[in-house]
């Protein structure tokens, strides 16, 4: 039996739907199981008892949401401990691309990878690149120009659907991917200059300090501005532009061009 956590979220819902399309009848792990009918199973990683994984053989562990590092690692630890307790055979974990170690939210992912490697579970680690959708949202025009402080850096962003399709292929045949870690980035690296050109607006990057001040008044949770700022600065610093071939090999097809995905996402964000 398969179970996908975060099945109500952006990535988890795509993975769950892909497994359904394959006829694998996955369970949908979520805090709102009723929306999935008989396939829904209540999964709340903040429950100290841990999730109910009885009967699950393959667990797709979608990273359990934004939070402080101690919150996220505790959630993942409960999930992995429950997998060990219930006899899960294999865990497919959606992690963060290796070049993302400069990002403020990398620690919880690396901690979870280590926890899996030290467990008695079979595992596959999918090191996901940053979403093209997120890049588009962060670089959406403000006042008729792209002002996001990405500098001249590039980001090997990837379409969320491609990451979901890769997870589906692994979860459908986990034995073929036992003990493997995959670096999943888009086929080309995007730049804010290129995105601005696609949108037909100028690129006028503002200083990091100006963007930080804007985020401090944007009603975000306390830990979120640091996460977003690290994306800007790591991209501007040239740390996130490297592409890898793992995604194409997993998909057995060329990955989607991330630029149209980013452009669509940028257009959906209202000007601030």
Which key features would you list for this structure?
7-stranded parallel β-sheet; 40% helix; 10 helices; 272 residues
Uncertain stretches of 5 or more adjacent residues: none
The assigned structural class equals alpha/beta
Overall pLDDT: 95
Q: How far apart, in Å, are the first and last alpha carbons?
A: 46 Å
Report strand %: 5-15%
Instruction: Please report the total strand number as a whole number.
Output: 9
Helix content: 40-55%
Number of helices: 10
Q: Within the largest sheet, what's the order of strands?
A: 3-2-1-4-5-6-8
Largest sheet data: 7 strands, parallel
C-alpha-based Rg, rounded: 19 Å
Query: Helix and strand succession?
Result: EHEEEHEHEHEHEEHHHHH
Using the alpha-carbon principal axes, give the shape: globular
Task: Explain what the structure shows.
By secondary structure, the chain is an alpha/beta fold. Helices cover 40% and strands 14% of the residues. It contains ten helices and nine strands. The strands form two sheets. Strands 3-2-1-4-5-6-8 form a seven-stranded parallel beta sheet, sandwiched between helices. The protein has a two-stranded antiparallel sheet with strand order 7-9. Helix 2 links the parallel strand 4 and strand 5.
Helix/strand layout:
Blueprint: E1 2-4, H1 10-21, E2 27-30, E3 40-42, E4 58-62, H2 69-86, E5 90-96, H3 106-117, E6 122-128, H4 132-138, E7 154-155, H5 160-172, E8 180-184, E9 190-191, H6 192-199, H7 208-216, H8 224-236, H9 246-251, H10 258-268
Helix pairs in contact: 1-5, 2-3, 4-10, 7-8
The gist of it:
The chain has 272 residues and is of the alpha/beta class. It is built from 10 helices and 9 strands.
